[in-house]
Amino acid sequence: MPQRHSKNNNDLAFFTYDEKKKLGYGTQKERLGKDSIKPFDSCCLCLKPYIDPLCCQKGHVFCKECILECLLSQKKDIQRKQAAHVLQKKQEKDDEEEKLMLQKARELEAFDQQNHGAVPQYNDKSYTRDKNGFHGANSVKVTSYEEEALRNMKAFWLPSATPEAPVKVEAPSNCTVCPEGNEKLKLKSLFPIYLTEEDKEQKKSNSISTNFICPSCKVTLTNTLTLVALSTCGHVFCKKCADRFMAVDKVCLTCNKGCKERNLVCLEKGGTGFAQHDDHLEATDFKHLGSGSGLGLVRPALKT
């Protein structure tokens, strides 16, 4: 039995539903796997297990070497931008002074030509004069102006005379920012954190990687748990223990050091510029058909 004509019809002026599906038109969704999610004990910059971890007040954890190198590069970049901004200000000031000098020189030259020139001034309207008081074709000054205009001519159709837009350097900010949260970050606001390793007796013999546990309830720390670090001593607990004990007793369960509610910092988990976490575990792309090409162009899906 032959197939229906509508299934094989491809000479229409528009794409059919079947053709759009074959070209990948529409929203393409894919759920992220475990390989796309950053572990909780990995640095937000190098994405490797952190060494000598430092945490900011927003809960982003970095390796000590990574965050120091990042802040140092930011300071060097700020110094470079400040130097470029100062140089631009100086250049603008010099240009203004040069324009004023040229304007004064032209006014003096025009005044001198007007009072001592060979061609007298006429008030008769039948004579065509330029702005300096000289007659058009017989004026040497007009010729020099024309030559200067030809030299400074800006024409987009000539590569040598194409005008260039000046690049204006804005005054940079003096504050370094967190590479993950984009908020202001200073080195003195970072504090070290300490994770409790699992005991060798409790550790499985076949496990190679190091496991970390909550020092209070002895639960293995993973991405599924919300972790809380104390900015006073740096010990890390699960959120249940932090809310049940430390938020009430105002003291660390490991070192008995006093703490306040503002010292409880929730650690960010899993999310980087290359991975998602929590409820955002689905990658979405929207493909629309290119005009006249018959191919699908990929662009990010609009957030609803």
TrEMBL record:
Coiled coil: none
GO molecular function, a single term: ubiquitin protein ligase activity
Domain of life: Eukaryota
Keywords from the named record: Metal-binding, Nucleus, Zinc, Zinc-finger
Pfam entry (one): zf-NOSIP
UniProt cross-references to InterPro entries, sorted A to Z: NOSIP (IPR016818), Znf-NOSIP (IPR031790), Znf_RING (IPR001841), Znf_RING/FYVE/PHD (IPR013083), Znf_RING_CS (IPR017907)
A GO cellular component annotation in the UniProt record: nucleus
Domain RING-type: 214-256
Cell compartment(s), UniProt: Nucleus
Protein family according to the UniProt entry: Belongs to the NOSIP family.
Protein name per UniProt: RING-type domain-containing protein
